[in-house]
TrEMBL record, chain A:
InterPro entries: SPC3. It is a single-pass type II membrane protein. It is found in: Endoplasmic reticulum membrane. Belongs to the SPCS3 family. Pfam families: SPC22. The keyword Transmembrane helix applies. GO terms for cellular component: signal peptidase complex. This is Signal peptidase complex subunit 3. Essential component of the signal peptidase complex (SPC) which catalyzes the cleavage of N-terminal signal sequences from nascent proteins as they are translocated into the lumen of the endoplasmic reticulum. Essential for the SPC catalytic activity, possibly by stabilizing and positioning the active center of the complex close to the lumenal surface. The keyword Transferase does not apply. Keywords: Endoplasmic reticulum, Membrane, Signal-anchor, Transmembrane, Transmembrane helix. Its main location: endoplasmic reticulum.
From TrEMBL, chain B:
One of its GO terms (biological process) is signal peptide processing. The gene is LOC103706168. The lineage of its organism: Eukaryota, Viridiplantae, Streptophyta, Embryophyta, Tracheophyta. It comes from Phoenix dactylifera. It is a single-pass type II membrane protein. InterPro entries: LexA/Signal_pep-like_sf, Peptidase_S24_S26A/B/C, Peptidase_S26, Peptidase_S26B. Residues 40-106 form the Peptidase S24/S26A/S26B/S26C domain. Catalytic component of the signal peptidase complex (SPC) which catalyzes the cleavage of N-terminal signal sequences from nascent proteins as they are translocated into the lumen of the endoplasmic reticulum. Specifically cleaves N-terminal signal peptides that contain a hydrophobic alpha-helix (h-region) shorter than 18-20 amino acids. This is Signal peptidase complex catalytic subunit SEC11.
Amino acid sequence: MHSYVYRLNTLVTFAAVLLAVLCCAASFLDAFNSPSVRAHAEVIKVNRFRKQLSGNDEVSLTLNISMDLRSLFTWNTKQVFVFLAAEYETSKNSLNQISLWDYIIRDKDHAKFQAQVASKYPLIDQGSNLRGKKVEFVLHWHVMPSTGRMIVDKMALSKFYLPEAYT
Amino acid sequence: MGWIGGNLESIRSLQTKQALTQAVNLGLVVTSALILWRGLMCVTGTESPVVVVLSGSMEPGFQRGDILFLHMNQDPIRAGEIVVFNVDGKDIPIVHRVIEVHERQDTGEVDVLTKGDNNEEDDRLLYPYGQLWLQKHHITGRAIGT
């Protein structure tokens, strides 16, 4: 009555629909996770603070970072991408966000740590505005799921005033 | 002889009808797929609402062959977002993360620098010669899920 092809077609369609529903459900359940993140960052040393030949200020820092991101992990989490951004304002730019350091956390066991790190990426201004500038450190995290919607959030950690003079 | 001729005629017209029906059905299927695709483009606001990851530059988050859902709206671009952009003159869309944002006070225009999670260097090497930043018009979408 029903051929092989017909039955196979029905089976595959059903499986595909079921997979889509499960993926949506997994992502939906993630929304119920209410995480509590703790983190701290402070500058230990200003390694370098100078004006480049191009006229732009450049800063390199060593930071002490500690964080506890374990509550972000669910069974649907593939990894958490975390980065520390230095955010500041200048007369030309209403917002400057520069990532200083980033890290990929693969599982819950590695989500709580403390480290002393040198800034991975240099803080280079568009111009020469950094002397004495107030910079805010904001920790951003992107929870990347195995399937579904990414969850993005951030937390302001501390403020830091750059030196008045180049080193 | 008359009824053979009559039967042949009716069979041929039945086959033609069937063939025509199948052709129309196929046309309907293709058209509805196109309508669905265009509708998705409208809803998400991007030219390519779904893309396939082509390179390994975002591993381990996105593997080659992963499917990404994109969305585009007027929200300002912020650091950490995963954006899709085309380098001038090249057709291949690149999916990388924004690591630097500079937004102008007066115009709200942004200068953006991107980098693949798995790459050592930022994307300045990919931008055309002399171009240091991406602007909003280079970016065709933001990844919202996999």
